[in-house]
Amino acid sequence: MTEIQDYYGRLFTKGQLTDSERQLASILPIINPNACPRCATPYFDNHQLPSGAYYCRECILLGRVRSDQELYYFSQKAFPKQDSLKWQGELTPYQAQISQALCQAVDENRPSLVHAVTGAGKTEMIYAVVAKVLDQGGAVCIATPRIDVCIELHKRLVQDFNCPIALLHGESEVYSRTPLVIATTHQLLKFYRAFDLLIIDEVDAFPYADNPMLYQAVDQSTKEDGLQLFLTATSTDELDKKVKDGRLQPLKLPRRFHGNPLVVPQKVWLQGLEKKLKKDQLPRSLKSHITRQRQTGFPLLLFAPEIKIGQKLATVLEKLFPDENISFVSSQTENRLDIVEGFRNKDITILVSTTILERGVTIPCVDVMVVEANHRLYTSSSLIQIGGRVGRSMERPTGDLLFFMEGSNRAIEKAIAEIKTMNQEAGYD
User: Fold this and answer.
1) pLDDT single digits (tens) 175-195
2) CB-based burial label for 32 (10 Å; 0-12, 13-18, 19+)
3) Which residues are bridge partners to 173 per DSSP?
4) Does 348 lie in the same domain as 223?
5) Angle between the 380-387 and 410-425 helix axes, to the nearest 10 degrees?
6) Which of 66, 199, 264, 368 has the fewest CB neighbours in a 10 Å radius?
């Protein structure tokens, strides 16, 4: 049974509360009567009920919002002061600078953007600022657009912090109130003025990027005197504008934690992939590079732009490389976390994936090949993130990163140019 304390800082529709619970709640002020008070999406004429009231389709999975019914919220309460951080690792001098700047941002209430390359160690850099707020009795949320990233992040923070940590996403258990919350960005729509510190990770990722509803969720879930921090490896036009306008303090870390540069992709010509796959074959260039890579013994991660291509590619690889353990993952794979763990533990030697694994997953010593890198579904941001899977460990800070393509395009060239620029900013030739 849900305790009333689990409602603190939360937002509810009328139907989600009992009569007695509504007596204890406050009514959310209506700012715009023509838009959903939860997600700020305008009401449309085709979303009108027989009663004449409107309802919101955009956030209906969280409970239907009606224009003729109030939303209710419970004011957030302070948590006990504590000593939350048990992680005793050391930051690099570059990481320490960012960490100190974030702690100062809290003191000065300065919203900030951390632009750090993939593999810079963003997670460790936020530990001090998270602990600073938690130890003062504050509420902290770390939100990211992807479920898989949330799960990976939760695993790490459970080990590194003493306090209870809630994990919230579309498939998670019922929420119990904790001082630290790890959530997908959509889950923020369930909160109201809840967090003293809200950290948005992977702000360039779908579905958060350029999503007004989720921007509303971020603003509404932060306390009026709370602070927002944004983390990214590839910035967005919206964030760049806020930096230029002075609404965000820019903090930049172009150097990876192990001190080695980002791996620059190598472009490889690829022609007739789908025709070859139909014949249970691979184009010569792809097959030869895979054969050569397998001689190294390092794990191989292959990215495919579409599920059907990835599935067929995995099937063909199983026939051509019978001595390898091969699997495929996508957003539709129910046991993908188990498969990724098997790949991390080297039980799986070749993993074919869609962009579901483009970020938030670290596989030591991995080599990466992007099949049909010129496909329209790959953006420069996703290609940079994919490239960032390579060289993330001290054991092997380098690796192979190949873009197989039938002609280059703007996304490929922009991704390569940005990687080279970040290496230059880090002091590499």
Assistant:
1) 999 999 999 999 999 999 999
2) exposed
3) none
4) no
5) 50
6) 264
